[in-house]
Design a protein that fits this description.
- This protein is an alpha+beta fold.
- It is built from 24 helices and 24 strands.
- 53% of the residues are buried.
């Protein structure tokens, strides 16, 4: 299915046939895992690639930034032996380039209420996450999401994660052109692609419409694409300034320029070539060095560029590379209401404050983008339903999630802004401050993440309250600072590119653990996150709000005209910055102030004993191994079909199991192998059977002939005996394929 057809079907309310099949497959895999027929390592990567995460169990509670209450997760009676998780986990919902329709938001609100804790969480990758979800419920969630055009496939795991893009794309004053259709095309081109299945770690892609603004944050992505144009023979050509090998984490690295102009027709094949080089040469054993940035650094950008160009030349032509260019309007939005100027501004001071920080005029006259400020990126199910109703009244399906964990209404007639604001205020979503110092970004931290060291969400909530109090003491420049918190060094809160960033660490004082945050200063949010800050010292968690206030006030009082915070830090010097905070680094003895020995939002004494093994990386499971697992699952499905009396379907599924196994093995020899059955059988015979690689010491080539016979056989009129024979032969073939793979891998 083409990207255009797929996108249109998303909007039609139909479930794509391939998505329905994928969910059925996952449900079968769940059953096989419960029966012990799939090993945990393989199933863990399988569920991660469906967006299903384990999460930190802790005491079964999390701090909720919307209502400032503590929520217990939905309880469920034990299912006894075979239950996959003793505690619920998290479901990540992929939202390509952040675009959400009103119907999609309604469904996610229902799912959060029925299966989660009635909270939708917006992430720094424009995703939506539901926490405290039981794994047995996930196939039902997936089907209901698929019915409104959402897939969770490859939301996690060693895969291409959600493709992000500037949320103002198509409405921005400074963009070269609207990057939305390109982000859409690459999303569905790389989704499930053979060449994206052998990664050692995750892979992130981002689009920006211009170079000067921060909206795309292309500088810390594996592939960062910035829209550019050039004139050739009097015609304007579209293309991308393409960067590779960026990343944050414990070792941040700025992306390197691969090509200063990639024509739009080359975007997809060049991205595919990059993925193939990463899949082939990227680290697999040392997970801490398995991101693309380490490969680019190891090889150098020049050698990496040469390898990509060689790979591009070797690619098998694919009509999808350019098909999407025939209809770039497929993702265009049409305003629901006609443009209208605001006219006389209401005298309501609350509206005026909201308008100053949360409203941005579009390039299209008479329209504006209005931001919903979401504390900690959270909104309740009731609030989400209210937002979808406001969208139906004012903008239609133009909502976008942002990387700073807010939501945007696009195409709001300026004259409708006061009424939209009143609607948001009634929902408890009328807070100003979007994009300002009090709009603090935070990862889940110790609330739900297994790797969290300190409570980034609890800290962010406290920072928000404290910074709102001192807002009047700060000038416009200080109010526009960005503050970001990560619960550990993995940088999910993007602290490296904040003006003032924090990452969770732990310290021991007189034998007791004390939560701390490393202070990071000097990051640059603008120009697509052009520079990374450096840590200058660990601060006790309880003193972090005082540190932030002191830095913001000092900047407001002493900055030179037009001086950014980064420039201010460079002028003053990090030594002086640390000196002004020295008194806040000390931790009082426990008997003097025990509050320092617990974390924000958690009254218990602080400990790191409940830190677990993170699931962000998943396990490295090669493409061939995934394919062989798929063939085993198809044999099982063939057995179920036979039990249901569907003999022709059972035989076909058994044949497909053999074909899947053959293709998985043959791609080890021919990475350009397509999916056509005749081609797979021909290549399998030539590359594995004739050289006696697929060979049994007792049966010789007998097992391979099972595939050849059923490939040539008329499978449409099979009886129960034929189906049973095919299933038995398929099982033997798959077993032989496993033995062959073990020999190839040794």
């Amino acid at each position: 299915m083409s990207e255009q057809a797929g996108y249109k079907q998303h909007l039609s309310g139909q479930i794509r046939e391939d998505w329905a099949r994928e969910i059925d497959i996952f449900e079968t895999q769940l059953e096989l895992r419960q029966q012990g027929k799939i090993e945990e390592k393989l199933f863990a990567e399988t569920r991660l690639r469906r967006g299903v995460y384990g999460q930190r169990y802790d005491n079964g509670q999390r701090h909720d930034g919307v209502t400032n209450r503590t929520l217990a997760f939905p309880q469920r009676a034990s299912k006894g032996p075979g239950t996959l998780w003793d505690a619920p986990g998290m479901m990540r919902i992929k939202i390509p380039f952040g675009k959400i329709t009103a119907d999609q938001l309604d469904v996610m609100a229902e799912l959060a209420e029925e299966y989660s804790d009635a909270i939708l969480h917006v992430t720094t990758r424009q995703d939506i996450q539901l926490h405290f979800v039981h794994i047995e419920d996930t196939p039902d969630l997936m089907r209901r999401l698929a019915a409104v055009g959402i897939t969770t496939r490859e939301a996690c795991g060693n895969s291409v994660r959600n493709v992000t893009a500037c949320p103002y794309a198509g409405t921005c004053h400074t963009e070269s052109f609207d990057v939305t259709p390109y982000a859409n095309a690459i999303t569905f081109f790389l989704l499930g692609h053979d060449d994206t299945q052998d990664f050692g770690r995750k892979f992130k892609v981002a689009f920006s419409g211009c170079k000067s603004e921060p909206c795309g944050l292309t500088n810390f992505h594996d592939i960062g694409a910035i829209a550019v144009t050039r004139q050739v023979d009097g015609e304007t050509q579209r293309g991308f300034e393409l960067y590779v090998g960026g990343g944050l984490g414990s070792v941040p690295q700025a992306a390197k320029l691969l090509d200063d102009f990639v024509p739009e027709a080359e975007l997809l094949p060049l991205s595919q070539a990059i993925c193939r080089v990463f899949g082939r040469l990227g680290e697999k054993d040392n997970r801490s060095r398995a991101r693309l940035k380490f490969l680019v650094k190891k090889l150098g950008i020049d050698e990496f560029r040469d390898l990509v160009q060689q790979e591009r030349k070797a690619l098998r032509p694919d009509p999808r590379w350019t098909a999407f260019l025939d209809d770039l309007s497929v993702t265009d939005e049409r305003p629901l209401l006609p443009a209208a100027p605001l006219g006389e501004v209401p005298t309501d001071p609350a509206f005026a404050a909201w308008q100053r920080s949360n409203v941005r005029r579009q390039a299209q006259a008479g329209y504006a983008v209005a931001s919903i400020t979401l504390p900690l990126g959270d909104l309740t199910s009731d609030q989400a339903r209210g937002v979808s109703e406001l969208a139906r009244r004012f903008t239609g399906d133009t909502l976008r999630a942002t990387v700073d964990q807010n939501l945007l209404f696009r195409w709001v007639p300026e004259a409708a802004l006061p009424e939209l604001y009143r609607g948001l205020e009634a929902l408890g979503l009328g807070e100003p401050g979007s994009g300002t110092i009090s709009d603090v970004t935070a990862c889940p931290g110790t609330d739900t993440c297994k790797l969290g060291i300190s409570s980034s969400r609890g800290l962010a909530g406290e920072l928000r309250r404290r910074l709102e109090v001192i807002d009047g003491e700060l000038g416009a420049a200080a109010r526009d600072l960005h503050v970001k918190c990560s619960g550990c060094f993995n940088a999910c809160g993007q602290h490296h590119v904040a003006d003032i960033g924090f990452l969770g660490v732990s310290r021991t004082v007189s034998g007791r653990r004390v939560p701390h945050f490393q202070l990071v200063v000097g990051g640059q949010w603008t120009e697509n996150a052009a520079a990374f800050g450096l840590a200058i010292g660990a601060i006790p968690s309880k003193n972090v709000p005082l540190v932030t206030e002191r830095l913001a006030k000092r900047y407001a009082q002493e900055r030179n005209a037009s001086e950014t915070f980064r420039a201010f830090v460079e002028r003053v010097g990090k030594k002086q910055v640390r000196a002004m905070l020295e008194d806040l680094i000390e931790v009082p003895p426990y008997d003097v102030d025990p509050s320092f020995y617990s974390d924000w939002g958690d009254p218990r004494e602080y400990t790191i004993s409940d830190i677990g093994v993170g699931e962000c990386a998943g396990e490295v499971v090669p493409f061939a191994q995934m394919g062989l697992a798929a063939s085993e699952r198809e044999v099982f499905e063939a057995q179920l079909l036979l039990e249901q009396g569907q003999s022709p379907a059972a035989l076909e599924r058994a044949y497909r199991a053999m074909l899947s196994a053959a293709r998985a093995l043959t791609r080890e020899k021919n990475p350009n192998l397509g999916e056509d059955a005749d081609e797979v059988v021909r290549e399998f015979k030539q590359r594995l059977v004739e050289p006696r690689l697929f060979w049994d010491q007792y049966a010789g080539s007998k097992f391979s002939h099972f595939l050849f016979r059923w490939h040539d056989h008329d499978r449409g009129d099979a009886g129960p005996d034929d189906a049973r024979q095919a299933i038995e032969e398929a099982q033997l073939f798959v077993d032989a394929a496993h033995e062959c793979y073990a020999r190839l891998a040794s």
